[in-house]
User: What shape does this take?
Amino acid sequence: MEIWINPACSKCRGALTLLDAEGADYTVRRYLEDVPSPDEIRAVLDRLGLEPWEITRTQEVAAKELGLASWARDARDRERWVEALAAHPELIQRPIITADDGTAVVGRSEEAVRDALGRG
Assistant: This one.
């Protein structure tokens, strides 16, 4: 299990606390420092069953500077979104937990983190 975190994020800290309390075996990835490649983002999106715009923090300064609100949310522009997330990792929703069963969750709630724990 791997968890993508921003240490300054309270949701990330909460997820780590819960994982520790449950004795989970996991690896931490500080994705702002260890930036995921476009291929890694695509793989996580596949595991999440989501599109890139569904994990984009659209209220961030970089999102406003890029004009993401006006970008199409369709298959034609999917790669544009993936590239934006790779170039601006602060736009990636957090925390993202990849489970050993090949799935992933955005762990913003205790329920989502517990869901990931149940998947191993």
